[in-house]
TrEMBL record:
<dbReference type="InterPro" id="IPR027417">
    <property type="entry name" value="P-loop_NTPase"/>
</dbReference>
<keyword id="KW-0547">Nucleotide-binding</keyword>
<dbReference type="GO" id="GO:0016887">
    <property type="term" value="F:ATP hydrolysis activity"/>
</dbReference>
<dbReference type="GO" id="GO:0006338">
    <property type="term" value="P:chromatin remodeling"/>
</dbReference>
<keyword id="KW-0234">DNA repair</keyword>
<dbReference type="GO" id="GO:0006357">
    <property type="term" value="P:regulation of transcription by RNA polymerase II"/>
</dbReference>
<dbReference type="GO" id="GO:0000492">
    <property type="term" value="P:box C/D snoRNP assembly"/>
</dbReference>
<feature type="compositionally biased region" description="Polar residues">
    <location>
        <begin position="1"/>
        <end position="10"/>
    </location>
</feature>
<protein>
    <recommendedName>
        <fullName>RuvB-like helicase</fullName>
        <ecNumber>3.6.4.12</ecNumber>
    </recommendedName>
</protein>
<keyword id="KW-0378">Hydrolase</keyword>
<dbReference type="InterPro" id="IPR027238">
    <property type="entry name" value="RuvB-like"/>
</dbReference>
<dbReference type="InterPro" id="IPR003593">
    <property type="entry name" value="AAA+_ATPase"/>
</dbReference>
<keyword id="KW-0227">DNA damage</keyword>
<comment type="function">
    <text>DNA helicase participates in several chromatin remodeling complexes, including the SWR1 and the INO80 complexes.</text>
</comment>
<dbReference type="GO" id="GO:0097255">
    <property type="term" value="C:R2TP complex"/>
</dbReference>
<comment type="similarity">
    <text>Belongs to the RuvB family.</text>
</comment>
<dbReference type="GO" id="GO:0031011">
    <property type="term" value="C:Ino80 complex"/>
</dbReference>
Amino acid sequence: MKITEVQSTTKEQRIATHSHIKGLGLREDGTAEPQAAGFVGQEMAREVSAAGIVVDLIRNKKMAGRAVLLAGAPGTGKTAIALAIAQELGSKVPFCPMVGSEVYSSEVKKTEVLMENFRRAIGLRIKEIKEVYEGEVTELSPEETENPLGGYAKTIAHVVIGLKSTKGTKQLKLDPVIYEQMQKEKVQIGDVIYIEANSGAVKRVGRSDAFATEFDLEAEEYVPVPKGEVHKKKEIVQDVTLHDLDVANARPQGGSDIISALGAMAKPKKTEITDKLRKEINKVVNRYIEQGQAELVPGVLFVDEVHMLDIECFTYLNRALESSLSPIVIFATNRGMCTIRGTDDVVAPHGIPLDLLDRLLIIRTIPYSQEEIETVINIRAKTENHQLARPALELLAEVGVKTTLRYAIQLLTPASILARINGRQSVEAEDVEECEGLFFDAKKSAKMLQENQSLFIA
């Protein structure tokens, strides 16, 4: 019998624009490495004075309800810095990215979309102590009885189960409903299971390592016999967001009759969560926090293209940022002085009203130099599995300076395909030149439109 290992294809399939970003790339003293964690340049924006300080403030929970603005020209790494902050914080801290234009919907109010994303970015870590029975199954005998409805079939009255741990054994008499769960989990003698005392939920952990054999490869997962007593109290930690709690409480638990079912079908897919409901949930959450049963984890809400929001959204943000349950908000924009959306003639820096700008810490990102563009292209080529010859890399860096970094990175894959067509493994300078002849960048396209204006429909 031949066993062959299946090669994973996930890495090749899932390469996004910022796949190479793994963190902010800071040293222990908070200064930025010129190139680290997939990040190149932008030392000022990454250092302690900026994004590094933001991460520390978030970790120490001292920045809830504050906001940061990443301002810079297109292609200077604003989104990359926000994603790097998310990587530094880890998976336990909620990170909710959105684009300014997402708020415009025909179904839901703009302010509702903003509040929904605000609530998604606030986590709640609930600590619950549950009574459980945990051990290795030594006995499993269902007790049958006559069917009360008559007939020859028998029903299960109860099930007797024996559980063994390192400190002793216990025999339990369980409800037939729990036996049905055990059958679904395919529990048999020799398995390690735990049963929740309150809900009766059964979880099969694995097979006891006492039954482990000498084979190298086995389908079963072997686990040790649980320590301590069979009946014990266990602390279970759950991570939820406030939006999860809103949705769970907003969904109507209608009856099982036909009218309720039809009513549920007729309702629109997206329903607004009322302010009253949110206030009630906030009360419950605050009570949990005061009792020490839960801990608030303020996450990060990242709003890209913030200039796309209008004056109504900005006035709502002023209020939302000052509420007691508020996340850290990171805005990003590439606009200079421009008109605030929703007004006719109010011009403001970055298209943001001055009263909101007053509440922001502004981080500036600067354009990349030719050496930095070369390093970024080299990292992207490795991430996308392209082999680049030195002259091709230098030429792409020159193209990046003349046009944009994004355009230079876009040329990588077509140049690689041309190289393969020409029978080469690595991309040479002539492949890049051929690509430049095939595709236009934004500046070339604008120039061509100006020269041939009469040929196009105005």
